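Entry type: protein chain
Record version: 2
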Amino acid sequence: MNVFSSGNPPHCFRLKPRRWAAWILARFGWGYHIATPPSPRCVIIVYPHTSNWDFVWGILVLWASGWPLNWVGKHTLFIGPFNWLFRRWGGIPVNRTSTGGFIERLTATMLEQEQMLLVIAPEGTRRLTDRWRSGFYRLALAAKVPIGLAYIDYGTRRAGIESYLNLSGDEQTDMAQIAHAYRNRKGYDQTKAAPIRLRPPEHTGAPPN
C-alpha cells in the first residue's frame, strides 16, 4: 500500500475558499488542513463519526478549504427543502436498504467525472456498531482510486485530511494501515466509535455507508 501526504497534485482543482467559514472555525478554536489529493478522483473516509456535530464542523471545513468535495448521506436526510440544499452542498443520497447495484453505479459515476472527491463515513451511523461497512473499500478498489483519511478530532480540535493511500487488495493489511493512521483520533463521543474492521458485504450492490 502506498501512502501519500501532501505535494504538488498532477491536476488542477478550482478551489473556492470561504473566509467566513474559516473565521467561524477559528472563533470556536478549530483548525483544519487538507493534504493535496494525489489523484483527481479519491474516496475519502471520515472517522470517527459519533455525533451530529460532525456534519457541522465537516461542512464548515469543506467551505473554508474550498475543495470541491461530494459526500454520501442517508436518503432520509434529503427531504423537502433539505433535498435541494444538501445536493447543492455536494450531497449524494443513498438508500441503505436498496439492493440495486449502488457500488457499480457510483463507480461508473466516479470514472465519468474528470474530478471527484467523494466523502463517506464508513461506520454508516452515529451509533456504536461492531465494525465498518465495506462499501468504501470495494468502491476504491473498483474505481482504482486512492483513499483519503479524513478526521474530525475533538481532542485537538483539528479536522481535515491527513494523508492518502492506495489499497493493496489485502484487506487485513490495508485495514491495519488505516487503523494505525486513526489510532489517536478522538470523536465527540469516543464510546460510540466503531472498531476499525470491515463488515462482510451482504451483496455486491450494498451501499457504501
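Comment: The mean pLDDT is 82.
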